[in-house]
Amino acid sequence: MTFEDERGSLSFGGDVELDINAYNEHEGGVSLFRSQSGEPLDRDDRFNQNGRILLDISGERHHQGNFARFKLQPLWGTSGNAGLDDAWLAVGSEQGTEIKVGRFEAFDLFPLGHDIFIQYSGTTSDSLYSDGQSYVYQAREGRGRGDSGQIALSHRFGNDFYAEVATLMGDRSGLFDGDTYHGYRIDDDTKSAAIVRPVIAWQPGDWSFALGMETNVVSDSVVDERGADIGDRTGFGATASYNGGGLIVNFSLAHLEAHEESNSSIGVNTIWNNIGLGYIYARNQIDEVNPNIDVDQDMLTPAGRNESNTVYTSYRFANVLGLNDFDTYIGAYYSYVDHENDMNSSDTDRYGARIRLKYFF
User: Fold this and answer.
1) What is the DSSP string of 39-81?
2) What is the DSSP letter of 27?
3) 291: phi > 0 → left, psi -120 to 50 → alpha, else beta; which?
4) Quick one: three-class SS letters along 330-353?
């Protein structure tokens, strides 16, 4: 629903997204890599329903070649909790320059396609870093929609080239789930970080290409008990996509250099005739861990290389019951982790399936 007059436009819309899930998950508070102790890794089967209703409110005004835009997206979950996706204000020129301030997602350097249901054997940079897990880095640590403030400056050069510099400022200790990093206790005394994330993109016809990086420019924003600067993290991402003739293909690379650790990921996915299929490979190289902890009892990812593999798929049933904008998806995934020194990692696999009801209004 859109209201327009000589001053600008105001729009109201949104969507309903409800999921019915069946999946397994690992027990909490333990490491995936249990071969050191010889104990099996317990898993629980889960069956549940969740989802949310999102309201989209957006407005735009133009004057003498300049504009101001805003977006607000409150959401309410079926659990009874309320949340927020976007909340931002952008001002700029119709010549292509824009400044955006608030809560939003910057350019996507690792698109997942139809990511109806993906969970990893380990964790993903779209969520949290955890000791005892494998890390699937996707060049998203500075992308946004976190608890920190954001500012982005962008410029579009004609129809082909785009450049963006996004920033993320504030306390970034929440990136680390738990209170340890490589077995060392994370210091509670943190200071504000400043992540800078430049991206350049080129779109010649049906193809698009993008390169970017993200880095924390503040030293010692998060430190561990040794005084080591574990907030010093620099990542790189590149993606190439094709979208034409009813076929979408994405290929992405990402690499992170962190304190005594490096992470690399490759992702490829496609959508064709409402069918989605994707694969993600991630490799973690950990140089050193705390030698003074009991690995049989504490959360720890052993030093060395670990690798995770994730396959996911989906199918979209469009306009169900003849109702426009009412789609139903089915999705599934399978994921597992191996460690070069772990001889008993067969129980790290995860899998699940989902039915998603999606209605746009």
Assistant:
1) ----EEEEEEEEEEEEEEEEEEEEETTEEEEEEEEEEEETTS-
2) P
3) alpha
4) EEEEEEEEEECCCCCCHHHCEEEE
Contact yes or no for 269/250 (Cβ under 8 A)? yes
Q: In angstroms, rounded to a whole number, what is the distance separating the alpha carbons of residues 62 and 103?
A: 22
pLDDT at 349 over 90: no
How many C-alpha atoms does 204 have within 13 Å on its Cβ side? 2
DSSP at 117: S
pLDDT in tens, 121-173: 555 545 578 887 889 999 999 998 877 789 999 999 988 999 999 999 988 88
The span from the CA of 2 to the CA of 10, in Å, is 6
d(Cα 351, Cα 238) in Å, to the nearest integer?
28
pLDDT digits 0-9 by tens, 194-222: 999 999 999 999 999 999 999 999 999 99
pTM for this prediction: 0.90
* 227/88 Cα distance (integer angstroms): 36
Tokens of 104: 């939003």
Provide the token pair at 72.
């607000």
Smallest CA-to-CA distance from 163 within 211, 217, 206, 195 is with: 211
Residues 6+ apart with CB under 8 A from 210: 107, 109, 199, 200, 201, 202, 237, 238, 239, 240
Spatial distance between the Cα atoms of 110 and 114, rounded to a whole number of angstroms: 13
Q: How far apart are CA 143 and CA 104, in angstroms?
A: 8
**Structure-token pair, residue 350:** 């995860």
